[in-house]
Amino acid sequence: MREELLVYEINDFSLNNDELMLNETVFHNANGYIGIRANLEEGYPNGYDTIRGSYVNGFYNISEMKQAERLYGMAEEKQTMVNVADTQSILLQLGEETFSMFQGTILESKRLLDMERGFTSRVVKWRSPKGKEAEIIIKRMTSFYQLSLFTIEYSVKALNFNGDIRFISGHIGNVLNYSNPNDPRVAGESFVHILPEKMEIENQTSYITSRTSKSGLYVCTGVTNLLSKEGANAGTCTIKKEENSMEAVIDSSIQIGETVTLTKYTVFADTIRYDDCKAGAEGEMKKALSLSLNELYDRQKAFLNSYWKNSFVRIDGDDGLSLAVNYNLYQLMQSVGKDEHCNIAAKGLSGEGYEGHYFWDTEMYILPYFILTNPDIARSLLEYRYKILDSARENAKLLGHKKGALYPWRTIMGKECSGYFPSGSAQYHINGDIAYAITSYYLATKDIDFIAEKGGEIIFETARLWMDTGYFYKGRFRINEVTGPDEYTCMVNNNYYTNASAKYNLQWAVQFYYLLIKEKKLAPIVDKIGIREEEIKEFEKAADQMYLPYDEELKINPQDDSFLEKKVWDFDHTPKENYPLLLHYHPMYLYRHQVCKQADTVLAHFIFEDFQPMDTIRNSYEYYEKITTHDSSLSACIFSIMASKLGYVDKAYDYFGDSAMLDLYNTHQNSKDGIHTANMGGNYMAIVYGFGGLRLKEKGLYFAPKLPKEWKGYEFKIIYEGSHIEVKVTKENVIFTLLKGEAKNIYVNDKPYELKDSIVLIMTEV
């Protein structure tokens, strides 16, 4: 692992407003529990737009979701991730002058993300309007060792002056969420989500306890400021209470060549995880201060050393792509929830896009990564789905189903947050996605205890939902009035992807039923939900007779029953500035055309490849490629994977690059709202499932490696049934190495091998 492939740096960074907002996302700090955007500590001049936010995963408020027509069952309120406090604020005064990037002269500036050590930094050499020169180095860390902890280490070195120095460290409870009425991907209006209730000062630590305005949740933030420098007394600290905020004023002096450092500790505690959030914050602050900052840095590095042992991906011959891929993988670890109370939002903890909601993104794009590299985290993500299973049962009843569970399309705590049901609640495939993820987890881990305790119940209840949604007609099981992954085509009959995912869900409900009988672990599930063999037989019949649309003339799988009857979108006369189409055309206009926002049937052919022969998969890929806009960030990675499978390696490479660079290069022009976590997981899959050809199947672990001509090679590591396996692909050969654990049977291009230590295959023969 080369250190430079884990460091991202910008020199002489821009003060353009758009660039600053983008960098708030790119350099944010998070650890799965808390996330803090990379705002400038000193703030911005009036007129600058900014998303200044600190977030707690799974912590939410309820806000109104107005419906023009109040039809039965439509959601009229939603959960929203809350900006909980501003503890980033630090003003630096050199005598009577206040440091600002927008005043004086910037002699040098740099922003850096160190993914090996787990911190971001900002380095500025500044000359004040009166000529004082200082070097300012600011390091920020959200701790993986102590998830509640965020630190800022703010160092100032005097380059040409002696004098007084002052830090004003803010702890602000009166904060708002970001809003933009012109962008459907963020909240459309500002709303007071959180209300500071109590401000306390104890042992030079400020605590603000706040409550949400409607959800009844509380959060406490605690802040301690410590000053250090060479020599005698570092300085004095006075904490002042103001309206809904507090500030610590820290005074000291500085000599030429001397460095003065303020270390700011912030802890977060909420009532989802703590009975008393104030007491929780006190305990967390005590824990944080029990170690030196250097010890906390050491533990951060140790955590990441362990993480990268399983997760690092190397692309030999393109360091830029290697950096981009590993940046994406680092962001996934920053974003993913570490307990059953939360999941991973579409924007992680980097911003407020999609209001912090959890989607199918987790199961279909992110879980495959964690299943293969960190199965304990994968299990935790699935446990979240079990935690909200009762809400999914209630959601099914609300939509008219007599049995089963239907997971909400977008949610935080389990209730549906989708206000536009044609492209939201109608996406019933969310059930199949979750069932697919549980099955994939089992295939990779053989964790039958999880299936017995939690996963099996989800599988059976989602299978029941399909039986209540679909029906048998002329010897086929059909599912009407649903929406597939492609949100440019809504409310259709027999969406191929949905039907295929339902078939897979039902098949595995049958298999898990008999497997649990064999393992003598079924009885508790029977006692709880009353699943019986007669019901299982119906599942089996529906799976066997599932209707999967096929067009004899084109020899493809139509996206749905009516898709091929529509007019093809006029791509030749659509201006480039009209993309993404959803921002420029009415939904009804889109629905009447053959145009795909993202992979739909093509995605089905990736994850359910055994349902169709190769010729049909190839024909479908070539057909849909021509009419897919990739307006969704979830699309390019899937087309890359399928291009690899079909032998179109050049195409796969092009799609892969589009996916890898999305956030670092802001290719969709919306990364200011937050990272695209699903694309980041999909980017990993494009290497491992695409170029590596990996598949998890009942018979075992399959590979079909390919190498883009632009690369000299690539390598990755996975965990399969507890064994650690390294895969290296070069122009000359493919090497599979068992790093740890028991020998495993693997298949390479369908040929079986026993992996005991190392297998070397000639690339031209693979």
From TrEMBL:
> What residues make up the catalytic site?
E487
Q: Where does substrate bind?
A: W360, D361, K597, Q598
Q: GO MF annotations for this entry?
A: carbohydrate binding; glycosyltransferase activity; hydrolase activity, hydrolyzing O-glycosyl compounds
- Glycoside hydrolase family 65 central catalytic domain location is 327-684
Sorted alphabetically, the keyword list is: Glycosyltransferase, Transferase
Domain named Glycoside hydrolase family 65 C-terminal: residues: 694-755
InterPro entries in the record, alphabetically?
6-hairpin_glycosidase_sf, 6hp_glycosidase-like_sf, Gal_mutarotase_sf_dom, GH65_N, Glyco_hydro_65_C, Glyco_hydro_65_M, Glyco_hydro_65_N, Malt_Pase/Glycosyl_Hdrlase
State any GO BP term from the record.
carbohydrate metabolic process
Q: Which domain of life is it from?
A: Bacteria
What are the Glycoside hydrolase family 65 N-terminal domain coordinates in residue numbering? Answer: 15-268
The leader peptide range reads none
Homology family: Belongs to the glycosyl hydrolase 65 family.
Q: What is this protein called?
A: Alpha,alpha-trehalose phosphorylase
